[in-house]
Specification:
Blueprint (H helix, E strand, L loop, with lengths): L4 E2 L9 E3 L23 H4 L5 H8 L4 E3 L2 H7 L7 E3 L1 H7 L3 E7 L10 H13 L4 E6 L3 H12 L3 E7 H6 L1 H9 L3 E5 L5 H9 L7 H12 L5 E3 L6 H6 L2 H13 L5 E5 L4 H17 L4 E7 L4 H4 L1 E6 L8 E6 L21 H8 L4 E5 L1 H15 L5 H20 L3 E7 L7 H8 L10 H12 L4
The structure holds pyridoxal-5'-phosphate.
Length: 453
């Protein structure tokens, strides 16, 4: 019999998160205070995040224990299944074994609850009453709304306008979990009002929504802000994905030559790849790890490694990362979760050190891949996740051309049940590829050169 699905025993669940900082040959550069250009200390971040998370943000410990209460909630959907993509393999007819970790089994339908639950836990521990956040495609807001419901916390979400209009059901999911949701830019904050004055029809962006959420969070002592990607502690929490996958692959008698995941801020890519990159560094393994970004927002392949703000209004510390500039406004592609101007500090440093690879992908190729995947594997992928499938198909074709045997692992990081409008648009032929121009880049990067220390 040929197995398609590999479950992990209860007793083999990861008990710790893996912190790649401990193994990195070049440690990430520190975030800077934009005024003094000095490294920010924990006390600078205390009005925004609970101390438990700030400690993880700066930790160099290789393993950090997952609290029992977090484990207990992970138990709703973890360990997630690892699938052998027999249907896709048959379709591609290439000398490849393809495995994917399916994170769509979580309550919100993506990998995001892996960190949302942990973040809600540490906030609750420190007496926080309300968590405020932004959401792009709606995946993060839904995950945090679910997590807040588990810990009896209030939740307020600023949702990028274009997604708010395109994905009304995401808003209703958040409402169902008990969160309040506002389209961003909104007139509730100074950051939002400034944008609306300039452009009343603004589609919004993640950078703008982050500014709004931070502005609201610092106004009251019992409120905190929460970020669903980019930061070190977020990537840390996601490493349960790769640790589980490693054990599941071991059960199948395999080890990956190539790991592929989409990259918006870097958390699901980090989650599946960091435990394996650790093995590359410490045990001399040679797994290629490939981050796939949208061609319309190509920070890794066309951006520059610079200090930049994480948001549009400039409320965050300066982060050393590959960026297109915090004022870069990505085209309104359907993979809303990938429309972010920068990449996490950890992923950026790893790319700079050639420990990971990056490719940019056009959306038509991605949707085409997503449809092949749906028909062969029975799972309708989130538009973000189709970027990984498209690269898997390219690698399979390459292996066929070279006549080499390859084992590929990729992250099917979310389902697309709430993104059917995107598939409808694809079938109707109204989606197009986007050509990124040098001019887009020059203007957005020009402003941030002045920010450098
Ligand atoms: C949020 C999201 C992404 C992008 O964020 P990362 O932090 O890069 O993982 C990708 N896929 C899905 C399904 C998402 O919800």
């Amino acid at each position: 019999m040929t197995t398609r699905k590999i479950f992990l025993n209860e007793s083999e669940k990861p008990t710790h998160w893996y912190n790649i900082v401990a193994d990195m040959p070049n440690k990430p550069q520190p975030p800077l205070n934009p005024k003094t250009k000095q490294p920010v200390g924990p006390e600078d971040l205390a009005p925004i995040f609970p101390m438990g998370l700030i400690q993880q943000e700066v930790s160099a410990d290789k393993y950090i224990e997952i609290p029992d209460q977090v484990q207990d909630i992970y138990d709703i959907w973890r360990p997630s299944p690892l699938y052998r993509a027999r249907g896709l393999e048959k379709l591609l007819d290439a000398p490849v074994k393809i495995y994917y970790k399916y994170e769509g089994v979580s309550p919100s339908g993506s990998h995001k609850p892996n960190t949302a639950v942990a973040q809600a836990y540490y906030n609750k521990q420190e007496g926080v009453k309300k968590i405020i956040t932004e959401t792009g495609a709606g995946q993060w807001g839904t995950a945090l709304a679910f997590a807040c419901a588990q810990f009896d916390l209030k939740c307020e979400v600023y949702m990028v306008r274009i997604s708010y209009d395109q994905k009304p059901y995401r808003k209703i999911m958040m409402n169902t979990f008990g969160a309040d949701v506002y389209p961003s830019p909104s007139d509730r904050t100074q950051a939002g009002r400034n944008i609306l004055k300039e452009d009343p029809e603004s589609n919004g962006s993640l950078g703008i929504a982050i500014s709004e959420a931070i502005e609201m969070a610092v106004q009251e002592e019992a409120n905190r802000y929460s970020l669903g990607s980019v930061l070190n502690h977020v990537l840390l929490h996601q490493t349960v994905i790769g640790q589980e996958a490693e054990k599941q692959l071991e059960m199948a008698g395999d080890y990956p030559d190539i790991i592929i995941a989409p990259l918006g801020g870097g958390s699901n890519f980090a989650g599946i790849s960091f435990p394996f990159i650790g093995k590359n560094i410490t045990e001399g393994k040679k797994t290629r790890c490939i981050a796939v970004e949208p061609a319309s927002c190509p920070k890794l392949t066309q951006g520059e490694f610079l200090y930049d703000f994480g948001d549009t209004a400039g409320y965050t510390p300066l982060l050393p990362m590959y960026t297109l500039g915090h004022n870069f406004r990505p085209a309104a592609i359907h993979a809303g979760g990938l429309r972010y101007h920068g990449a996490s500090v950890l992923c950026s440093q790893l790319l700079k050190d050639n420990l990971i690879e990056a490719v940019a992908m056009q959306q038509l190729e991605c949707f085409h891949a997503g449809i092949q995947f749906a028909r062969s594997e029975g799972i309708i992928a989130a538009p973000e996740a189709t970027h990984a499938v498209a690269q898997v198909i390219r690698e399979a074709e390459q292996a066929k051309k070279e006549g080499t045997q390859k084992t590929i692992l990729f992250n099917m990081c979310g389902h697309g049940f709430v993104d059917m409008k995107a598939y409808e648009d694809y079938f109707a032929g109204v989606l197009s590829d986007h050509t990124f121009t040098e001019n887009d880049l020059k203007s957005a990067l020009g402003e941030i050169r002045e920010l450098q220390p």
